[in-house]
Amino acid sequence: MTSQDQNPPPLPGPVPVDAPPIVGGPLPPPQSNAAVASMVLGIVSCVTFCMCYGVVTIPCGILAIVFARQAGTDIAAGRAAPASAGMARAGRVCGIVGLCITVVYHIILIGFMIFAVATDLAASNR
Fold this sequence. Notes:
Helix content: 55-70%
Order of helices and strands: HHHH
Number of domains: 1
Number of helices: 4
């Protein structure tokens, strides 16, 4: 064996500041935080429709729809990755479904209350 075989190859020198990136090409736009927030709030809106009489569901559903719209604007302007569109769509749909379920839940709840009061009044008038 020679002395060259035993020595490791020399390390490359420092990269100049104005050197082009090694990977090549610009970085893709970041994931849309508004899309993530929209999806999370939409799911919370769907899950909590019967808790606290809509105190949690209604604001979460509205915010999910608003954040989904903001994410769509960011994606269209190129400030967010196009892959975020699916999360924004899921958040918007879940927010709308959560709000609709809450409205139907409240209509049924009010209907039962009216029925109970009417039945009680009818029984007390006999």
